């Protein structure tokens, strides 16, 4: 297998949303993701070079979206979730932007595994449709897959 850190390919994920306009507001304005192609019932976003696609699902009711949770470092991590590994400066800037936008965190921004292998900054929050997102950062990116 090739060294994925030197030839990282863009990731693609498609996920359901209850409202395309609401998704545009959240992903486009709050998270700052540039918009790509779109139609009436889906929209592409550029999430730090990765393609995420919000697909309208008429029957989606985020109030009934119950996520499974797994304990990690004393926190209940929502599953499923997706996100991105940022630089520490970008993570801090996004954290501050989310706080300023009054986004409610599922797991408040903090340093996970502090002083241990894999130490990382992390935060979890939900989009308006109830999709869980995690954004994390490492001071030392070589710790990403460290055991």
From TrEMBL:
InterPro entries: Glyas_Bleomycin-R_OHBP_Dase, Glyas_Fos-R_dOase_dom, VOC_core
Keywords, comma-separated and alphabetical: Dioxygenase, Oxidoreductase
Entries under Pfam families matching the protein: Glyoxalase
One MF term in the entry's GO annotations: dioxygenase activity
Lineage top rank: taxon: Bacteria
The keyword Oxidoreductase is annotated on this UniProt entry: yes
SUPFAM superfamilies given in the database record: Glyoxalase/Bleomycin resistance protein/Dihydroxybiphenyl dioxygenase (SSF54593)
The keyword Acyltransferase belongs to this UniProt entry's keyword annotation: no
Listed name of the protein: Putative dioxygenase of extradiol dioxygenase family
